[in-house]
Amino acid sequence: MTDATAPSSKRLIVPALGGLYASLHDGVETLLRVVAGLALVTHGATKIVDPFGATEMVEGLGFYPGVFWSPLLSATEFFGGILVAIGLLARPAAFAATFVLLVTVWFHWVTVGQGYSGAEKSILWAAIFLFFAVRGGNRHSVDAKIGKEF
């Protein structure tokens, strides 16, 4: 494996595990991307059927006009989740998801006043999508299959 993140057998406590880690690396990364994307799709599915349903909520967070931001939120969650899951335009879709999730961190932590305990899940999901915004979809993605990525 030529990946810079692949473990070096010389540094492993149990060097024999190096081959296992290397063989699972891309598959596990792909699994995380697909699960994260599908979770975002599931979250956005209720919004996509009523893209203006979150108008008041987004305006309550300071995003005006809500009739612009609410459908954008719906599309980012639903279609962005699909794009991340299949690995097509994975970086920009994951970046948009990261932004949405950072807004939910702000909402839960500051607006609602729940602090870390209320924002914890959003922080974790934002970190996952930030990983794919930086890393891309890997070799098991539509981007890789077409030979182009953002």
From TrEMBL:
Keyword hit for Transmembrane: yes
Record localization: Cell membrane
Family annotation (InterPro entries): DoxX (IPR032808), DoxX-like_oxidoreductase (IPR051907)
Keywords assigned: Cell membrane, Membrane, Transmembrane, Transmembrane helix
Membrane topology field: Multi-pass membrane protein
Cellular-component GO terms for this entry: plasma membrane
Transmembrane intervals: 67-86, 93-110, 122-138
Keyword Cell membrane recorded: yes
UniProt family annotation: Belongs to the DoxX family.
Name this protein carries in UniProt: DoxX family protein
UniProt organism field: Pseudaminobacter soli (ex Li et al. 2025)
Lineage: Bacteria, Pseudomonadati, Pseudomonadota, Alphaproteobacteria, Hyphomicrobiales
